[in-house]
Design goal:
Strand order of the largest sheet: 12-18-17-16-15-14-13
Radius of gyration: 22 Å
Structural class: alpha+beta
Largest sheet: 7 strands, antiparallel
Helix content: 25-40%
Shape: globular
CATH class of the largest domain: Alpha Beta
CATH topology of the largest domain: Naphthalene 1,2-dioxygenase Alpha Subunit, Chain A, domain 1
CATH architecture of the largest domain: Alpha-Beta Complex
CATH superfamily of the largest domain: Naphthalene 1,2-dioxygenase Alpha Subunit, Chain A, domain 1
Distance between the termini: 34 Å
Bound molecules: FE2/S2 (inorganic) cluster, fe (ii) ion
Number of domains: 2
Order of helices and strands: HEHEEEEEEEEEEHHEHHEEHEEEEHEH
């Protein structure tokens, strides 16, 4: 996000704060049928469309810095391994041997020299080519050149690694991400490093989990004793590019900005900025660290949630830095996301069974939830 845009958003947030309201979203109440969260046919259609036709975030680039370092998929449905070949080129392969399909990499090696299958020891190079068939003489007429690992499109953009779930898909991230890519580049996401990553299963629909992030309406209540102080009288501005959504939330200190020169304004000092990177990533620019949350559906009411936290090395030096990072991670991950947002999402999911609501009613401050739902509905096949 460039400086002028940061200044414009901050001015916009100050004006909204005067009026005590969010930037207008849809301007109407929307009813979303609850079968969106329970119906296995809807999930099948989502998997066949939004989870097949679009680039997905695999993780931060620091996961795969050099030849042989690698990153494994968190979702068995698209079982990829991302690595760099000897030339340093990023590659993504299905983590499956071309002989009889055993899993090649399990995550127990620090660095790969080659892909060596644990079943019958076929060996593949880091570029995916089959280097050796064990007892080659037992495979007359089998041409190794036809047995390279199955490749998926992979690319780096904005400090993130992206894969396309369809081997024939194209990764044009410039046009896919639009202005959101400029933000990631200008925030220098590439230069950050990983602090920690967690992976857990939540008993709620993947969209219910993402939707907990898409409004500020709940903050003074659900986060009464945690976040609400930082966002007192918080207001939200938003911006969409394609199916992606950016939200900026004013923090409590935003009034102090009036005493300073706009030349020196930096949005993250006075607001948090959040992105839906469609379809399943929720990316957060906190004041001094970043959260990448990714949601992978397992069933209508079960979802893998991964949370990767990134930071700038210079901001957290030494032991004190380490302690500060641990504190931020515990607060954000355990207390707020898991203990408050997702706990309530699991409650809502369980209550869907007992049928008090055929639909959820979204008010004027919840319009972004409806926009997100609409982006999915528009793409279902
Ligand atoms: S399944 Fe990999 S070598 Fe047989
Ligand atoms: Fe929340």
């Amino acid at each position: 996000m460039n400086h002028q845009e940061q200044v414009d958003i901050l001015k916009g947030l100050l004006a909204l704060r005067e009026q005590g309201r969010d930037q207008e979203m849809l301007g109407r109440v929307v009813r979303v049928p609850v079968r969106n969260y329970t119906d296995p046919h809807i999930l099948d259609r989502e998997l066949a469309s939004v989870f097949t036709d679009h680039p997905l975030v695999a993780g931060h680039v620091s996961n795969v810095p050099e030849p042989g370092s690698y990153l494994l998929s968190d979702w068995n449905r698209i079982p990829y391994v991302v690595t760099r070949d000897r030339q340093g080129r990023l590659r993504a392969f299905l983590n499956q041997c071309r002989h009889r399909g055993a899993r090649l990499v399990k995550g127990d090696e620090k660095q790969l020299k080659a892909f060596v299958c644990p079943f019958h020891n076929w060996v593949y190079d880091l570029d995916g080519s089959l280097r050796a068939i064990t007892r080659q003489e037992d495979f007359p007429g089998v041409d190794a050149a036809e047995y390279g690992l199955k490749e998926l499109p992979v690319a780096e953009a904005g400090g993130l690694i992206w894969i396309h779930p369809d081997p024939d898909g194209t990764l044009d991230l410039r046009s896919y991400l639009g202005r959101m890519l400029d933000d990631l580049v200008e925030f220098d996401i590439e230069k950050l490093v990983r602090y920690r990553k967690t992976k857990v299963v939540k008993n709620a629909n993947w969209k219910l989990l993402i939707k907990t992030y898409l409004e500020g309406y709940h903050v003074p209540y659900l986060h009464r004793t945690t976040l609400s102080k930082a966002f007192r009288k918080g207001v939200l501005a938003h911006f969409e590019d394609g199916p992606h959504i950016r939200m900026s939330a004013a923090r409590s200190n935003i009034d102090e900005i009036l005493e300073t020169d706009p030349e020196s304004w930096r949005i993250l000092d006075y607001a948090s900025v959040y992105y839906v990177l469609f379809p399943n990533t929720f990316f957060i620019m906190h004041p001094d660290y970043v959260s990448i949350n990714i949601f992978y559906p397992l069933a209508p009411d079960r979802t893998i949630w991964t949370h990767e936290m990134l930071y700038r090395k210079d901001d957290f030096p030494g032991e004190e830095g380490e302690a500060a990072l641990a504190k931020r991670f515990d607060f954000t991950n355990d207390v707020v996301f898991d203990g408050e947002d997702f706990a309530v999402a699991e409650d809502v999911q369980e209550n869907l069974r007992y049928g008090a609501n055929d639909f959820h009613t979204l008010g004027l401050a919840e319009g972004l939830l409806a926009m997100f739902q609409q982006s999915i509905d528009d793409r279902l096949r």
